[in-house]
Amino acid sequence: MRVFIPWSSHLLPAVAARLIADHAAESSHPREADLSGWLLVVRGGNAQRRLIAALASAAQQAGLALIPPRIVTQGTLDDALFGTDSSVASELTQRLAWTLAVQRANPELIEKIWAMPGGRGGIANLAAVLDRTWRTLGTAGVDFSGAFSELAKIAPDSADIEQERWESLQHLLDEYRAVLGTWGFTDPAARRARLAATGRPPADLRVALIGIVELTPEFVLLLKTLPEPPLVFIHAPESESAGSDDWGRLNAAFWAKRPCQFSNGEIHVVRGVREQAARCAELIRDWKSAGLAGSGITIAVPEPAAVPALLHGLADAGIEARAAEGSPALRTPALQLLSQIADFLDRPGGAPPTYPSVAALVRHPDLAGITRLSAKPLDKFFNDHLPQRIAPQHAAPGSNDERIAELLQRLEDITAIRSTHFSADVTRLLLRIYRHHRLPRHSDAGRALHGALEAVRDALDEIERLPRRALAELPVSELLRIVVEIAGRTEIPAPDQPDAVELAGWLEAASDDAPALIITSVVEGALPEGAPVEPLLLDALRERLGLPCRASRFARDQFTLHTVCESRHAQGRIALLAPRCTAEGLPARPSRLLLGATEGNDLARRLISLTTEPHTATPPIHAAAGLVPPEPDSEKMRAFRIFSVTSFRSYIRSPRLFYFKNILHLDSQDDSADELDPGMFGTAIHTVLEKFGERHIGGSGVTDPAKIEAELKTILEEYMSGKFGPHALPPVRAQSRALEARLGVFAKHQAALFSEGWQIAYVEKGRSLVVPFPVPGGPQDVKLKGRIDRIDRHVNGRWRVIDYKTSSQAVTPDKAHFAARSGEWKDLQLPLYVKLLPEIADIGSAISADATELVYFNLPPKDEDAGITEPFTTEKISAAWEKAQQIIAEICSGAGCREIGEVADNEDPAFLALCGLNGLPSTEEEE
User: Fold this and answer.
1) 321 and 335 belong to one structural domain
2) Burial class (CB in 10 A: 0-12, 13-18, 19+), 208
3) How many whole angstroms separate alpha carbon 522 and alpha carbon 529?
4) Same domain? 388 vs 288
């Protein structure tokens, strides 16, 4: 029997009033409203809570004591009608059974279903797809063979092509059922089919479907076993009776032609999720000022990913809000940790753990007390070796590599989980991590932790029921991922906040009785909802089998929009927000649900309003807003005494940056690199050339470029193997070829230098050269330090100081050190090298500054630009020394380092911020 609730009423209060009134008319107990014989079926958990409140209110108004009914969601209808059965496989058990079925299958069988990447990832992904597909298909009352029979009817031309695929799917389904059987479990779909054929619910059970607009064929068969048909409450006037069947299922064709009416003032176009939250806050403030309480306002969220941004935005605006459905346990730190441990343990062929998996564990706050290592040493290890997987080789005692090796051992100890003892080992791991956490249950963090651990415990209890020999076939990493996925679906309830604005799911909004409603994310893909995600079930097949499809989902969302809007147009408030971007930041199209009721000029105006630049509800935040650069400390500058010859270039460009990097010794390090940066590329070449030079000091050298190139290649291979090992990132291995090419260019020019009579006299050592550099009229205890790449001596007695340059553009010393027109200094490095020469053992005293050239050995990508440059202008050397002394005097007086100067745009963001040049983006497009 269908009961129509007009749109002028809210669904749940009207249903509650009807049930209480009907009972009062029939009951022989005038003081009781005994509904204990009723089973009420609603869409979701929020509707359960609201319906019991509505029944209590209706009973109180009638002066009756309520004996409540059972209220369930449609997903648990079979258990509600026939009782629970412990032999029915849980979601987790079903997934594990599918995983084993796929794992045991012949690869040729799998190939008939679809092309699958090799390894465990392909098996796990296919098992997840088949699990999800069968859950959907099983509610249609057919197996894969039955589905293929229907597919052949709607697509006969492709039946021959598809037959092998569907036969293979049926074979895997049979294997899945066999696995469940050996474990002592039954497939839920098989149980429903049996109950639909032979089941008998209690004879006195009365059932009401409340706002249920989607029922699959198998659930209809279950309802047909009832002794009397259910009461079907439909939230629509009786004039719309053609829009649903006797079970309340929507007529898709009917609702496709029934667009909802809106005024332009009810539609709000916003830019993105931040602005959507801000617009919600504006509307709520306006409605509250008009007399509405926060508890009388609901925000419907068709896009679940937008919930966190909405909650944060409302909190920032000072508006109390809560997610009615709670928050998924998957977002909690505890489940994130288990997911990261799964990544750490996922090692095909016994390979070392990946760097990202180790870094994630080290950075997880819940492991901080156990790993006993900050991220800094790990970042250093990464930047030293650029590893894809971490396996420290020959770590020297006391070295950073040794610390990383010890860290890996600690992580191995913590994550020692065996498949055959999975539940016990995971429990032990969690106890070790969380035993000493003292978080009150009522706090947000405590509620999240307790909820997550309880969900994991339930999953582990289910796994404990499985035979150990079955678990032994599954990798620990895969078991963990399945536990995280299943436990992560648990919703952790939000705390009760009586005056808070509630955020509800879109389908829950249909049964929400708040007088004011904001509908967010009214964009294609969210509202109406996008296509179902099972790739094996074509939309036409879904429609034929009576499963949710594009047409039925459009009808459902069109109908729901009618119910929520029509019930508030007369008395209430409604607002629809259409953001330009999804919660993930992708461009979004306005929902077609906003356009159906308009035509002609009205349609044109609506389209223009939806596509013009939206008004932003938040003012732009300008760069560097609120960031004040810290002033240099004069005392630290006065105490500074050792100057690197390369640091003067930094001071000339930006005195403030010099202060941060050279006086405060600040550094920024992370693990964002994915290849050798220019500095590391140059270091590799310098190191190889240093070792080459050491082998040829004092000798006449090799004049055959091919022999030099072969020698350099051997040195490079030794360097790359020792520095980066066998597990370097793929781009690093590719860059080895680029290094070889640069060294090949060097070989040609070096052979020519040897032929011209130049000999290598000195190469850079492991330590810096340090010499006194007193400042006239200033500090006398200043020292210069630096490293000289190489010094050559010609057979005729001339000397040459060489600095290797590996940048992409060749440059001459004069151009690099001072501006040709203005004469302003840009660098002082080469002239200051002259001051370091006396410190070089054996040859320092023999080098004459007058007979010494200061040159670059350019090694850019282009061969024609490579080689020894023209020497630095000798007459400029003394002027460079004076400039250096002037800078030192300025710094040591405490007056230097005040100017920001020129800071490169690609400088580290942390240093840009310290210089007051980097703040928050002023617009969303700049982010």
Assistant:
1) no
2) buried
3) 10
4) no
**Alpha-carbon distances of 598 from 246, 581, 588, 614, 909, rounded to whole Å:** 31, 24, 21, 21, 50
- Number of independent structural domains in the chain: 5
Query: Closest Cα to residue 355, out of 382, 332, 392?
Result: 382
Helix 375-385 / helix 705-724 crossing angle, nearest 10 deg: 160
Same domain for 447 and 306: no
DSSP string, 372-432: ---HHHHHHHHHHH-BSB----SPPTTSHHHHHHHHHHHHHHHT---GGGHHHHHHHHHHH
Q: What are the residues facing 505 on neighbouring strands? A: 301
Within a domain: 919: no
Alpha-carbon radius of gyration of the chain = 37
Contact 557, 525 (CB under 8 A): no
Range of the domain at 286: 254-326+495-611
The Cα 569–Cα 516 span in angstroms is: 10
Same domain, 316 and 440: no
What whole-number distance in Å separates Cα of residue 3 and Cα of residue 6? 10
Instruction: With H, G, I as helix, E, B as strand and everything else as coil, classify residue 318.
Output: coil
Both 442 and 318 in a single domain? no
Residue 25 tokens, joined: 């008319």
Stretch (H or E) spanning 737: helix 730-755
Regarding whether 519 and 482 lie in a shared domain, the answer is no
Lowest-pLDDT choice from 187-196, 641-650, 699-708: 699-708
pLDDT band at 533 (very low <50, low <70, confident <90, very high): confident
Spatial distance between the Cα atoms of 733 and 151, rounded to a whole number of angstroms: 50
- Give the residue-averaged pLDDT of 462-474: 91
Q: Measured between alpha carbons, how far is 790 from 425 in angstroms, rounded to an integer?
A: 58
Predicted TM-score (pTM) of the model is 0.80
Kindly state whether residue 70 falls inside one of the protein's structural domains.
yes
The tens digit of pLDDT for each residue in 3-20 reads 999 998 999 999 999 999
Query: Is the link from the previous residue into 217 a cis peptide, with omega within 30 of 0?
Result: no
Q: Are 528 and 557 in contact (CB under 8 A)?
A: yes
**pLDDT over 70 (residue 96):** yes
**Residue of 86, 92, 52 lying closest to 72 (CA atoms):** 52
Tell me if 436 sits within 8 A of 423, measured CB to CB: no
Do 264 and 334 lie in a common domain? no
Characterize 514-524 residue by residue with b for buried, 16 or more Cβ atoms within 10 angstroms of its Cβ, and e for exposed: bbbbbbbbbbe
Neighbours of 117 (CB within 10 A): 9
Measured CA to CA, the distance from residue 867 to residue 872 in angstroms comes to 15
Q: How far is CA 887 from CA 55, 151, 883, in A?
A: 83, 83, 6
Structural contact between residues 456 and 464, judged by C-beta atoms closer than 8 angstroms: no
CATH classification at residue 571 = 3.40.50.300
Q: How many helices and strands in the chain, by DSSP H and E? A: 36, 23
Q: Does residue 309 sit in the same domain as residue 450?
A: no
